Amino acid sequence: MKKLLIVLCALLLCGCATKQYKDLGYSAEEARKIVSLKEDSQAYFSEYSDTLAALLNDEGFREDKLKTYFKYLDIFSTGQLIELANDEVITLDNYDRVKNLTELDEFMIDNIREYLKLTPRFDDEILVYLVNNDMMDSYEKVMKLASDPMFTLDNLDIYLEHFDEKSNIRDLIEYINSKAYLPFYTDEERADVEKYGYYVLVNKYYKLDADYAPDDLVNVESKYGRGKFRKDAYEAYKKMQDDAAADGIYFYIISPYRSYDHQYSLYHRYLANDTQANVDTYSARPGNSEHQLGLAADIMSSGYDFGTFYMAPAAKWLQDNAYKYGFIFRYPESKIDITGYKYEPWHYRYVGDIAEDVYKSGVTYDEYFEKYIK
Ligand SMILES: [Zn+2]
């Protein structure tokens, strides 16, 4: 009799316990499984969840992994949870990294073990790309490339293809990012002034339409030189020239805006006396000149000419200060392989509020535009 009572009580208690889970929506079988778990495990089932129910019914279900399943509930499906947690691919400790990986566009669940095998020495995005494309034999090279702040994953294949062509990583990356690995004047795109405003790039890969002319050109007053300049660039220039004069440094504009036709005749005048390969290093082809933007100016100092301007105090002052006024120095001596132009210490380009950032980046605008603006 006593024994019977105990059995009866046990049955009743058990029935009460399972009823609680059945009321939540679990089946009788699932509820029975839940009450057979330890008390702190049961706590995970205080609300109904399809995924939790499916986990319980999966033959791979392990109570000791319940905490891990639960942590990754929003990320993986039931089958994935069981497999990855049971094999300790996903653990309580690597949640943040796994979550970041799964949020990458290129993430592939089949490769997750490969990704996690490697310590992330650079962005997981790069790692995922390498694993997905079976490129782990390039790991060491990619590590070197990725240490450069201008590294761009989209260009990775091209960096690797040209890896031995430059003696250091910085030069290689700039060479690729700026498109200079392509022959000049090939693969040209339209320079889109409407889209990029003062940030537009015009070089040997970006060309202006023949009929493009800015609609806000103003005349440069004789005090500041000659020609026409876009209004904002001119205002910034005037302040620059005035501030320089206050420092005892004197210069003025000799050539700001040039129309397509003007550039055409200039270029062809040079061609009459020189080879095209040579002319291309000091004169832009029509459509490829920043002067057509009305945002570039050649600046000169009394007593100097193009051959000697680099020695003028104005040249040094401009190099150190022009960025404060929205102007950048476009054709440095050491970047001929990138810009395609010889050293032009007199040529400045207005880009507005990003000038300081461009200056501090230390890279050519050709590379800066591709990396940050485009
Ligand atoms: Zn110029």
Quickly name the level 1 CATH class of the largest domain. Answer: Alpha Beta
Order of helices and strands: HHHHHHHHHHHHEHEEEHEHHEHEHEHH
Rounded mean pLDDT is 93
Ligands bound, unique: zinc ion
Named at the architecture level, the CATH assignment of the largest domain is 2-Layer Sandwich
- Record the strand order, biggest sheet: 5-6-8-7
At the fold tier of CATH, the topology name of the largest domain is Muramoyl-pentapeptide Carboxypeptidase, domain 2
Integer tally of domains: 3
* Largest β sheet strand count, sense and barrel closure: 4 strands, antiparallel
Strand content: 5-15%
Q: Structural class of the secondary elements?
A: alpha+beta
The total beta strand count reads 8
Task: Give me the secondary-structure topology.
Layout: H1 2-24, H2 28-35, H3 39-42, H4 50-57, H5 66-71, H6 78-86, H7 95-103, H8 112-117, H9 124-132, H10 139-146, H11 156-161, H12 169-177, E1 189-190, H13 193-196, E2 206-207, E3 217-219, E4 228-230, H14 231-246, E5 252-255, H15 260-271, H16 276-279, E6 296-300, H17 313-321, E7 327-329, H18 336-339, E8 347-350, H19 355-361, H20 365-373
Parallel strand pairs: 1-2
Antiparallel strand pairs: 3-4, 5-6, 6-8, 7-8
Helix pairs in contact: 1-2, 4-6
Bound molecules: zinc ion.
The site of zinc ion has 4 residues, from strand 6.
Describe this structure in words.
The chain has 374 residues and is an alpha+beta fold. The chain has 3 domains: 34-93, no CATH class; 116-177, no CATH class; 189-373, Muramoyl-pentapeptide Carboxypeptidase, domain 2. It contains 20 helices and 8 strands. The chain has helices at residues 2-24, 28-35, 39-42, 50-57, 66-71, 78-86, 95-103, 112-117, 124-132, 139-146, 156-161, 169-177, 193-196, 231-246, 260-271, 276-279, 313-321, 336-339, 355-361, 365-373; strands at residues 189-190, 206-207, 217-219, 228-230, 252-255, 296-300, 327-329, 347-350. Strands 5-6-8-7 form a 4-stranded antiparallel beta sheet. Strands 1-2 form a two-stranded parallel ribbon. Strands 3-4 form a two-stranded antiparallel sheet. Helix 1 (2-24) crosses helix 2 (28-35) and helix 4 (50-57) packs across helix 6 (78-86). The chain is elongated and about 100 Å long.
